[in-house]
Amino acid sequence: MSRWMVFVAGILGVVAVMIGAYGAHGLENSLIEEGLETEAIEKRLEQCDIAVRYHMVHVLGLLCIGIMGQQVAPKLRSAAAVFFLLGISLFSGGLYSMVFLGQMGHWAIVPSGGLSFMIGWLCLAMTAFLKQANH
Q: Is the pTM for the entire model greater than 0.90?
């Protein structure tokens, strides 16, 4: 799983950089061309920035999980990784949906992603207190 987690972190890192670059250099013009009002454009640019920031931070979390090694609480590591992936999908994905499509779907998507991030960090924190022999 460690190799796969490093691989997934690398791919998701590339995606975060690509979206961030587009957000910084092309998104505003696209939104202007859509005819959105200045306030709506500013809100979407801010949402994109937040989504990319949380996306990238949690990619780095995934990378850390991937390089921790199999001997460190594998079940909690796996749970943390799953919750980070879920958080990226729901939190950042929900915001990306608002930014690029103008709609998110259900209102609870973004908060559910935030909760997933928190659970993932708690799982990761708990690995510090487990002895290697107890997993």
A: yes
User: Tokens for 93?
Assistant: 């994905």
Whole-angstrom distance, CA of residue 112 vs CA of residue 108? 6
| Two tokens, residue 35 | 């005819």
The rounded distance, in Å, linking the Cα atoms of 95 and 50 is 8
Q: What is the pLDDT of residues 28-48, one digit of tens each?
A: 999 999 999 999 999 999 999
**CA separation, residue 109 to residues 93, 95, 120 (Å):** 9, 9, 16
Contacts of 109 (CB under 8 A, 6+ apart): 90, 91, 93, 94, 97
Distance of CA 23 to CAs 36, 40, 78, Å? 16, 14, 31
What pLDDT, in 10s, does the model give residues 97-130? 999 999 988 889 999 999 999 999 999 999 988 7
List Cβ neighbours of 15 (8 Å cut-off, separation of 6 or more).
55
SS3 21: helix
**Helix/strand/coil for 42:** helix
What mean pLDDT, rounded, does the chain reach?
Answer: 93
